[in-house]
């Protein structure tokens, strides 16, 4: 039937059908290994449940092995830095808080520290305001790390962790709402101090939270740390050592998980962090597992700081004394929601013409900031948040640049993922904890 | 009269304590003031900043001693880098921060020394950003580098000024972390970093025209393309009256 070198033929109702066989074809088809020789380019994102927002990864794959990753960002660029140049210095807080939406208070803090340094009033900020700032930043760090735990758990298959993490974060958001009126994007820190004092009800909630969270943390550890799937997905995955971190500019938990205890709260203290007692947790593994351990330990350290803040809290002002800078109004909750306190309105409208002029000038024009430039670095949940602020002497920022840790840290994805399996790209990317709102600004 | 009425008057002319007058902005001697903001003329300006007049003093060298660790950094760099006198244009200390103004063509060499010398050890390039000082032609765009020494716990700012569409060497070979940050500075200001492995836009779309963070790039007044149709800027749209 078969004749070597010739194709066999067969008549069918559709016409003649040739069956191509023989030595030549077998060697040709045999020489192609469908797995090793096929390069696939996969476009992951910008809309993808495992990329923490609108991050796009262009992956080149050989089978399941990643040979090249190219992160593409900019999908959430909203021009916040440009917009700041059109607003006065106080309005800037409202803008910057929207950058990294999981750590809004850090954006505000970095901005306020920079403006205060430009004004030269860093040492004049009331003790109570600084203590509340530290306390709220640490609560925000906890909520940010809880979201990290939640989303990373979800991405690596532990869906219940997602539910628990968001549930506990809601507790903190309630505290923020109680204090600032908003769950997120608070605009609570203002140049010179705080928008308003923290109410006693919120302090009571914080005390409850200090009792509540440690128990829950134990549950999460019991659920994740001993679990084989969690260990397999995280241990030895997406390794980046100290050298790699430093050359790529990676800071925060990723750097500390590689073994370098670099934490700006300790190494270059600001806002009085030198007065608090806490440790800088590190790990030696430099992998996703290490970053998980570091973040869990950081939540505990933050709880310690919050506790010390509550002890330190003394009654007092929460805004600088300088009436040229301090926002004149006192906010209060009225029948129609939050607004200027009636007492203040009565005073400026009925008793004091100068107060009215002063209020008017500050609110419409804003205060002037002497020309110059400053750089302030603070320890954000994801690493170093740097604010470079330039003033030309006017009432508006001349230029504000945010060195956002998400932006810089995302550069490490190729270094972590190339040569590894596709599933580890998710684990590695998640371990960087990128927030695209901060990355693209 | 309440106490608040007395306080503002006495404090109005006082400079906040700790603030030094010294601008990072440099303007050529012929230009003393600028009018308006963002270069918008006529109706394009809806912000009300058209009547703004801004005067900026020029930066001055800070006399020695600088104080703190600044003298040590300065001397260590002078010792380790033979081209110091040629490359460093100006040393400014303001608000407890040290700024070295570097000639743009020398920035890579300076960074290399800053990173490698044992007395300097600036291992981490924290931030690279741009600032547009509108008004000076040859020194209009400034690229600002913030270097952190983890060994000595110090921060230093390097600043290089280039004209519009100016070029300067990329520092990515010294600090790989500058990769995206230089791309951002290129995207936003149009500064070209020579030797950068992949200098493309990063935040704006690839086919975007102009560099949005420049001061003469208006916030409004730009036509927007939406699903193939072009929507004119607000001031060019039909007016219903």
Automatic annotation (TrEMBL), chain A:
Molecular functions (GO terms): NAD binding; NADH dehydrogenase (quinone) (non-electrogenic) activity; quinone binding
InterPro entries: NADH_Q_OxRdtase_suD, NADH_UbQ_OxRdtase_49kDa_CS, NDH1_su_D/H, NiFe-Hase_large
Membrane-related topology note: Peripheral membrane protein
Catalysed transformations (reactions): a quinone + NADH + 5 H(+)(in) = a quinol + NAD(+) + 4 H(+)(out)
Catalytic activity, EC: 7.1.1.-
Compartments it resides in: Cell membrane
GO cellular component: plasma membrane
Entry keyword annotation includes Membrane: yes
Residues annotated as domain NADH-quinone oxidoreductase subunit D: 156-441
The UniProt record lists the keyword Transport: yes
Regions that span the bilayer: 146-166
Cited PROSITE patterns: COMPLEX1_49K
Keyword entries, A-Z: Cell membrane, Membrane, NAD, Quinone, Translocase, Transmembrane, Transmembrane helix, Transport
Protein family: Belongs to the complex I 49 kDa subunit family.
Protein task: NDH-1 shuttles electrons from NADH, via FMN and iron-sulfur (Fe-S) centers, to quinones in the respiratory chain. The immediate electron acceptor for the enzyme in this species is believed to be a menaquinone. Couples the redox reaction to proton translocation (for every two electrons transferred, four hydrogen ions are translocated across the cytoplasmic membrane), and thus conserves the redox energy in a proton gradient.
Subunit structure comment from the entry: NDH-1 is composed of 14 different subunits. Subunits NuoB, C, D, E, F, and G constitute the peripheral sector of the complex.
Name the record gives this protein: NADH-quinone oxidoreductase subunit D
Source species: Spirilliplanes yamanashiensis
Lineage: Bacteria, Bacillati, Actinomycetota, Actinomycetes, Micromonosporales
Record gene name: nuoD2
Automatic annotation (TrEMBL), chain B:
Domain NADH:ubiquinone oxidoreductase 30kDa subunit intervals: 100-221
Region (Disordered): 1-22
Protein name from the UniProt record: NADH-quinone oxidoreductase subunit C
Keywords: Cell membrane, Membrane, NAD, Quinone, Translocase, Transport
UniProt catalytic activity: a quinone + NADH + 5 H(+)(in) = a quinol + NAD(+) + 4 H(+)(out)
Subunit structure, interactors included: NDH-1 is composed of 14 different subunits. Subunits NuoB, C, D, E, F, and G constitute the peripheral sector of the complex.
Membrane topology annotation: Peripheral membrane protein
SUPFAM superfamilies according to UniProt: Nqo5-like
Family (UniProt): Belongs to the complex I 30 kDa subunit family.
GO molecular function: NADH dehydrogenase (quinone) (non-electrogenic) activity; NADH dehydrogenase (ubiquinone) activity; quinone binding
Top EC group: translocase
Any GO CC annotation of this UniProt entry: plasma membrane
EC number(s) per entry: 7.1.1.-
């Amino acid at each position: 039937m078969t004749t070597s070198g010739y194709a066999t033929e067969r008549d069918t109702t559709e016409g003649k059908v040739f069956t191509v066989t023989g030595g030549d074809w077998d060697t040709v088809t045999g020489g192609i290994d469908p797995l090793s020789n096929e390069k696939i380019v996969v476009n992951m994102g910008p809309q993808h449940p495992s990329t923490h927002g609108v991050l796009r990864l262009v992956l080149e794959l050989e089978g399941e092995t990643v040979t090249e990753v190219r992160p593409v960002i900019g999908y959430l660029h909203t021009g916040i830095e440009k917009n700041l140049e059109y607003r006065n210095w106080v309005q800037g807080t409202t803008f910057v808080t929207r950058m990294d939406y999981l750590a809004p208070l850090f954006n505000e803090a970095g901005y306020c520290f920079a403006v205060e340094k430009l004004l030269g009033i860093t040492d004049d900020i009331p003790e109570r305001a600084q203590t509340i700032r530290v306390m709220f930043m640490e609560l925000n760090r906890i909520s940010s790390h809880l979201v990290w735990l939640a989303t990373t758990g979800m991405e690596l298959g532990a869906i219940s962790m997602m539910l628990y993490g968001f549930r506990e974060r809601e507790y903190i958001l309630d505290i923020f709402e109680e204090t600032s009126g908003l769950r997120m994007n608070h605009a609570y820190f203002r140049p010179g101090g705080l928008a308003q004092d923290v109410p006693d009800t919120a302090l009571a909630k914080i005390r409850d939270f200090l009792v509540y969270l440690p128990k829950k943390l134990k549950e999460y550890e019991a659920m994740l740390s001993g679990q084989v799937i969690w260990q397999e997905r995280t241990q030895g995955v997406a390794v980046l050592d100290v050298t790699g971190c430093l050359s790529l500019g990676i800071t925060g938990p990723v750097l500390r998980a590689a073994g370098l205890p670099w934490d700006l709260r300790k190494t270059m203290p600001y806002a009085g962090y030198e007065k608090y007692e806490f440790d800088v947790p590190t790990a030696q593994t430099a992998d996703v597992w290490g970053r998980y351990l570091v973040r869990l330990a950081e939540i505990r350290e933050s709880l310690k700081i919050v506790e010390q803040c509550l002890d330190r809290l003394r009654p007092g002002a929460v805004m600088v004394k300088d009436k040229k800078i301090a926002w004149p109004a006192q906010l209060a909750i009225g029948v129609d929601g939050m607004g200027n306190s009636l007492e203040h309105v009565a005073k400026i409208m009925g008793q004091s013409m100068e107060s009215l002029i002063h209020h008017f000038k500050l609110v419409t024009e804003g205060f002037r900031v002497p020309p110059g430039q400053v750089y302030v670095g603070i320890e954000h949940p994801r690493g170093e948040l740097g604010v470079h602020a330039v003033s030309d002497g006017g009432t508006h920022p001349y230029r504000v640049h945010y060195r956002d840790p998400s932006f810089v840290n995302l550069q490490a994805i190729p270094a972590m993922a190339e040569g590894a399996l596709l599933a580890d790209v998710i684990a590695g990317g998640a371990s960087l904890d990128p927030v695209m709102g901060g990355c693209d600004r | 009269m309440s106490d608040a009425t007395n306080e503002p008057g006495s404090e109005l002319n006082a400079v906040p304590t700790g603030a030094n007058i010294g601008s990072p902005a440099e303007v050529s001697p012929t230009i003393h003031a600028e009018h308006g903001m963002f270069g918008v003329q006529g109706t394009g300006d809806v912000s009300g900043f058209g009547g703004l007049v801004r005067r900026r003093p020029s930066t001055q060298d800070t006399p020695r001693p600088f104080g703190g660790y600044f003298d040590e950094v300065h001397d260590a760099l002078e010792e380790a880098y033979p081209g110091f006198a040629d490359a460093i244009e100006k040393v400014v200390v303001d608000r407890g921060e040290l700024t070295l103004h570097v000639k743009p063509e020398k920035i890579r060499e300076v960074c290399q020394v800053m990173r490698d010398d044992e007395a300097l050890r600036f291992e981490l390039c924290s931030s690279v950003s741009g600032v547009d000082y509108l008004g000076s032609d040859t020194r209009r765009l400034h690229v600002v580098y913030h270097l952190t020494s983890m060994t000595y716990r110090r921060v230093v700012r390097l600043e290089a000024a280039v004209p519009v569409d100016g070029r300067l060497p990329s520092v990515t070979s010294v600090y790989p972390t500058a990769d995206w940050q230089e791309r951002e500075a290129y995207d936003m200001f149009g500064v070209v970093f020579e030797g950068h492995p992949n200098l493309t836009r990063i935040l704006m779309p690839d086919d975007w025209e102009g560099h949005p963070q420049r001061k003469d790039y208006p916030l409004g007044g730009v036509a927007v393309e939406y699903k193939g149709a072009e929507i004119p800027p607000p001031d060019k749209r039909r007016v219903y009256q």
